[in-house]
Write a structure and sequence with these properties.
The protein is of the alpha/beta class. The chain is built from six helices and seven strands; from the N terminus they run αβαβαβαβαβαββ. The chain has one domain: 3-Layer(aba) Sandwich (Rossmann fold). The chain binds S-adenosylmethionine. The site of S-adenosylmethionine has 19 residues, from α1. S-adenosylmethionine (SAM) binds next to α1.
Amino acid sequence: MYVWPCAVVLAQYLWFHRRSLPGKAVLEIGAGVSLPGIMAAKCGAEVILSDSSELPYCLEICRQSCEMNNLPQVRVIGLTWGHVSQDLLALPPQDIILASDVFFEPEDFEDILTTVYFLMQKNPKVQLWSTYQVRSADWSLEALLYKWDMKCVHIPLESFDADKEDIAESALPGRHTVEMLVISFAKDSL
Ligand SMILES: C[S@@+](CC[C@H](N)C(=O)[O-])C[C@H]1O[C@@H](n2cnc3c(N)ncnc32)[C@H](O)[C@@H]1O
């Protein structure tokens, strides 16, 4: 299991916005090694990490990341995109959903957005902060965002010092093309 270039860029975005994080309810989906969620927790957010409930190994990696970073208060739950599980139903309203490099398989895109939509019903102001590695110019979220009543703002990498091959001493971003998106409910006036 790796830390993906997207995770470094999203962690940098969180660091840039660290003053807004204390007390915020933050859920990371498809967390894997969980660098962004760990960063949010270190900045004072109330973080829940999640990965597929069908991949216990990945959930174990999430738990190990919490342990290694001395964050016993961070919960880890199984949350498979597009599945309405007991754990999803029981989640309290979230302020921010983190998603680093989860848009890598077009057939999963709608499942991810349905999970986000479900969380928007609990809090219409919830925002999805997501980094996306451009792997094919043919892939687009636009039609799905329209279908699920969501809007998307592209955040330029230079606006949070992430337009570099090395970020925070990590060479992972390298020459990969990574985009930062903030997705929210289209009818939210904010
Ligand atoms: C490319 S990795 C990104 C991991 C991490 N977010 C990062 O950027 O380092 C994709 C992650 O999505 C998780 N995943 C894959 N399919 C999933 C599904 N159907 N539901 C929930 N998580 C899933 C994988 O277990 C993996 O942790």
